[in-house]
Amino acid sequence: MNPTAEQIQKINHFSKVHIDMCAKIADVVQIQECEPKEQLLTEGDTGDTMVLVFQGQVEVSKDMMVKTASGFATSRKPIIRLETTDPRPSAAPETEPTVFVVEAPAFGIGEFSLVLDNAIRTAHVNATTPLKYGVLGLEDFTNIVKDNPEIGGSVYFEVAKSAVNNLATASGDISNLTQAFFFALTR
Amino acid sequence: MNTETPLDQIQDSEVSAKELDEVLDANKDLYDKLNQIPEIEAIEAISLEEEITTEREDTANPFSELIDKINSFYRENELVRYASWALLLILLSTSALTYLEYEMFKDSVKSHTDEIGGTFIFGENEPNVLDTFFHTFWWSIVTFTTVGYGDVSPVTHLGKFLTIIIMLLNFGVVTLLGGAVASVLVAQRLTGDDTLDENKFDGHLVIAGWNKTVPSILNLIDSNKDSNSVVILVNETDKDIIQRSIAGYERLDITHIPENFTNESVLRKAFLDKAGAFMILPDSSGLLPHEEPDEDKTVLTCLTAKSISEACNVIAHVLDVENVSHLQRANANEIVIPDEHVPHLLAKHVTDPGVPQFFDDLILQEEDDKGLQEVKIPKTLNGQTHNKISAFFKFKYGWLLVGYAIRKAGFSLDEQMGESGSPLIRNMIKEQLDGAGINLTSDEHVIVEINPADDYKIDEKHSALVLR
Questions:
Q1: What is the per-residue pLDDT across B341-359, written as a single tens digit (0 to 9) for each?
Q2: Which H or E element spans position A23?
Q3: Which of A81, B58, B292, B421 is the most exposed, fewest CB within 10 Å of its CB?
Q4: Chain B: nearest CA to A40, how far in angstroms?
């Protein structure tokens, strides 16, 4: 089953795209369902698809090296949870969130795959509720943009915006880590 | 002052008496004006009030103080607690017996005194209630302590029955008292010394190590009336030597802990976590005159102190410059190196004769309330400029303000990171540093600002360095 054009337009990246164009995107996306705990994306994998979540909640997490009592160990640290509001998830999340929950009508994950061949996934994404989602492939999207160049502008603008935001956060992280490093050295 | 004129030209420039007068007159106006600034008057009023309130605190009700003392003594001393309860029980039972067996005890006391032909203390020819009571009390104590002279004994069944109860109760009380005496003795043996009264120690000075400079240090602290008077000395020098050296200070309340100060438990016993300052000196306890003190102990003690309380203000004295870097790594707040100033003083004798003598006078000043001192600036003067503060001290007290000691807040990683970067990374940094026992804020430290520009602004972190 294909999603409706309205469902596509609810996603932030496509909010400025005309409804007719959204219908074109909807045509190449299939709605799929999955159960809680199922892994949608794996950190470190490469992929050329963007996941569009229409209903449900997902948790974004990263593998981190942390020091424990028995030495260094890799542990998966949740970063954030994303939840749809239109419609709301069909069930409450299986585990209580320990991190911030961001709400949006619907959302897309892995948007860098729309511009990059084989973009590396920077985090794990797991379902925490029953999920309705679709997968948009890079090739399908590129073909649509080729035929309808006006889509590109607004979508690529949103992708660029999130790339710039990520960059700012990353440079903040680097400066924090550097400070912490020097701080730890003087102790 | 920040003047452009090179120093040697000050002497060369010709100043007539008239010019000098003009300068002085102009400044007089300025000083008069400064003296009239409303803040100063307001502050005078405030400081007067402060004096009055402190006086009031000083003359607190001696009766309530006595009650407080007795109360705390009762709470902290197990032995006293049992003894007072035992005494109360004895008195109660004595009163009951006096009341119930009045006739018997009265007859007994009468026959006793008749035998030796004495008179009664309270009644004249006939024993009265008090005599009888005392007699009963005597009997009670004789029975309680299991001495049992047998000069008095109950006759009636009721008396015997009551005595049985008292003897049984006595069993418990004597056992408790005996136990308490034993436990106090054992506790003293275990701690090696009588335990220090915790309430007294807050913001006190702990001095680890003993050498010939300690009496001079104590002397100087003794003469500064604003400093905390409670001092704990921790060292293994012979008790007699310490006792002789610490006698005769007017103000100081000195306690000596004769144990190894590198031990954490010993430092804790000196309530280091509540101490205002911790001084570590090269320890010559038990050394022959030509032997050098072991300075590794100083570094080790500094590390131990910082592990007990990160906030502890550690002042370390080292003889060997090589140890300075170790102490810095151990986070000592202030490090004093004795010979540091010597080259400067020697050179100044040649280049600026008088300056070294001035320093000597300033630092070695032993007269009370003279020389260079750090004084607090009234809170209401926060935000004022240097020239006003300077005028305030000059006119109110006649002191010369030479600079400021500024308590610089430590560096806080948490504050520094703020909201930048992702919360995940920030939290992880905090968690990991916390887990590794690294404090996220560094210690406060003191820096000095000497003779700043007139418009230099003062805040609550400043305290004044004045020449009195």
A1: 788 888 888 888 888 888 8
A2: helix A19-27
A3: B58
A4: 21
